[in-house]
Design a protein that fits this description.
The complex is a heterodimer of chains A (175) and B (396). Chain A has 175 residues and is of the alpha+beta class. Chain A contains eight helices and four strands, in the order H-H-H-H-E-H-H-E-E-E-H-H. In chain A, 39% of the residues are buried. Chain B folds into three domains: 208 residues, Rossmann fold (3-Layer(aba) Sandwich); 72 residues, Ubiquitin-like (UB roll), CATH 3.10.20; 92 residues, Up-down Bundle (de novo design (two linked rop proteins)), CATH 1.20.1440. Classes of the chains: A alpha+beta (175), B alpha/beta (396). At the A-B interface, helix 2, helix 4, helix 5 and helix 8 of A face helix 5, strand 5 and helix 12 of B.
């Protein structure tokens, strides 16, 4: 990590700690912000957070390693989490999984070399009536078929920030 | 994307503001008495009487108390809270505000699971509207009562749906359940008296305040009152969220959702029980088959061993690893299922596994480990013939 990158990370963490308060109960919100922006929580980040909250870095490490959505190692810009729990399994998640592996050229638990995609399993994501379902970062895709996998990946490749469908779905949900 | 199907029938009729206004016009003890009269029980699955919980928290002596809404809906096959939060969030927020008035708290926190992050923005907007309308803030509805609600995100841990693990997580720790007592009503979030209730429970509170305890108690059975939302998925023609009165027979529910030919139904999610067709006459309620609302239908061609395996994989993944019966027991049961798949499990070993499951039910620290063997045990009990003596060909 370049010195300037570290400096940027330290400044970001200082801002987030100030926003949530320098309290132990702010730990997870701060870690969530780090994860969202940097796609990983590095050793250095854990040390900086620990210094701010006046706790031992191993406390931070123990929290990071407990939660599925907080990660030490680098995760792609788009983290794809396919639900593997029973209803999505019965709805055909295995074929969607195979197609995801084929199209990305990686197995579950891996990231693509260009740093764009990570592929993971998720426990029940609460879309059981519309399975198989997957999450791309914060965005949910219900009723995925092997054929739709390509479209979802293209949507990710073409988008610069958050997925374009994000806003559209929110509008729909409110109606 | 459709967030809602059928259902939410009662909740759509309730005016959240009427419920909140009716509650604030009463003394705290009267609010609790109304819930007790309605015989409302927790909608998350455990079924603890809400009136009792709230009166204990109200009696606890402290100047700071907390109202927590458990929106960590992680139970496999459950998605009713997602639909409630998408369609009638004000009922939930009003219910939390009523909770604050009842126990003397001025702060509420919604613990929203990380998988539902896409719901956060609309919920924040709903909170902003409530603040602007004076339904939250320094003077709620012009009374001296102050209350505000914050949304906090989970980070992908099923065990955080257990109330003490949820509190640990909010405090910035690993989501490992605490020993009880002390109960959260005495020492919860940051050591203060705290009520933790399910999303649907808070919505029910608002409904009871708006329409009165007698209305609520008239629905359902004597011990299980009120309407209940069910999340229906699996092999049926019409999956989705349904509202039924408590005490409905399984067979009738299956007729409604188009799953009459089912050979079994998993009620209560992964931690619930597998009900075979021979028991479809039993009723779904706290005194019958108790549930948080998850109904997974298995059609005639489903391999029940694969179902059991899926549930056990879930628990091996989601066990927090703190206590031995749950950490080791779930892994052993999953191993046993692999042996059954290969047709290498003796009847004696299956009996050992059953005994292990019963030990886990007794000896695990929290509800996760106490209930994780349920699915395995009930599938072994009812589908013994199907899962034993598999040959290599059948396992493929």
């Amino acid at each position: 990590m370049l010195v300037t990158d570290r400096q940027r990370l330290r400044e970001d963490i200082a801002v987030w700690v100030a926003r949530f308060g320098a309290r132990r109960s702010s730990l997870i919100p701060v870690l969530q912000e780090i994860q969202a922006k940097y796609h990983q929580i590095s050793d250095h980040a854990m040390q900086v957070v620990a210094d701010h909250l006046d706790i031992h870095p191993v406390e931070v490490y123990s929290v990071v390693t407990f939660y599925a959505f907080l990660n030490e190692g680098y995760h792609g810009k788009f983290v794809i989490r396919l639900c593997r729990t029973v209803s999505c399994d019965m709805a055909g998640k295995s074929r969607v999984a195979r197609q995801l592996e084929n199209d990305l050229g990686i197995a579950f638990g891996q990231s693509t070399k260009d740093g764009k995609f990570s592929l993971e399993w998720a426990s029940c994501i609460g879309m059981c009536d519309q399975g198989p379902a997957l999450l791309v970062n914060d965005q949910v895709f219900p009723a995925v078929t092997p054929e739709k996998v390509h479209d979802i990946l293209q949507l990710c490749r073409k988008s610069f920030g958050p997925l374009a469908v994000h806003q559209a779905n929110h509008r729909e949900a409110r109606q | 994307m459709s967030l809602g199907h059928q259902g939410l029938v009662t909740f759509r009729m309730i005016d959240p503001d009427a419920g909140l206004a009716a509650a604030l016009a009463r003394r705290p003890a009267e609010i609790v008495a109304e819930l007790t009269a309605a015989r409302l029980k927790g909608r998350g699955g455990a079924g603890f009487p809400t009136g009792v919980k709230w009166s204990l928290a109200a009696q606890a002596a402290s100047d700071v108390k907390y109202v927590l809404c458990n929106a960590d809906e992680g139970e496999p096959g459950t998605f009713k809270d997602r639909v409630i939060l998408a369609e009638v969030p004000d009922l939930v927020f009003a219910g939390m505000t009523i909770g604050g008035a009842a126990i003397g708290a001025s702060k509420g926190i919604v613990y929203l699971r990380g998988e539902y992050a896409y719901q956060r923005q609309p919920l924040e907007e709903a909170l902003a509207r409530r603040r602007a309308a004076g339904q939250l803030g320094e003077r709620v509805l012009g009374t001296p009562f102050a209350f505000d609600i914050e949304i906090r995100m989970g980070s992908g841990a099923y065990v955080c749906g257990e109330e003490t693990a949820l509190i640990e997580s909010l405090e910035g720790h690993r989501g490992e359940p605490r020993n009880r007592p002390p109960f959260p009503v005495d020492a919860g979030y940051l050591g203060r008296p705290t009520i933790v209730n399910n999303v649907e429970t808070f919505a029910c509170v608002t409904a009871i305040m708006a329409k009165g305890a007698p209305w609520f108690a008239a629905i359902g059975t004597e011990k299980s009152t009120g309407p209940k939302l069910f999340s229906v998925s699996g092999d049926c023609a019409r999956p989705g969220v349904y509202e039924f009165p408590m005490g409905l027979p399984v067979s009738e529910l299956l007729r409604e959702v188009g799953g009459e030919d089912a050979k079994a139904v998993q009620i209560g999610g992964a931690s619930g029980r597998c009900v075979p067709a021979s028991a479809f006459a039993s009723t779904i309620c706290y005194e019958g088959i108790s549930t948080g609302g998850s109904v997974i239908v298995f059609g005639p061609d489903r391999d029940m061993l694969r179902v059991a395996k899926n549930f056990m994989e879930f628990f091996v993944e989601e066990s927090c690893g703190q206590c031995t019966p749950c950490r080791e027991g779930n892994a052993r049961l999953l191993q046993g299922i692999a042996m059954l798949e290969d047709g290498r499990c003796s009847a004696a070993y299956l009996a050992e596994l059953t005994k292990l499951g019963e030990v886990m039910q007794l000896a695990s620290k929290c509800g996760l480990g106490q209930s994780s063997p349920n699915a395995f045990l009930s599938i072994v009990e009812h589908f013994r013939d199907e899962i034993m003596g598999r040959t290599y060909a059948a396992a493929r």
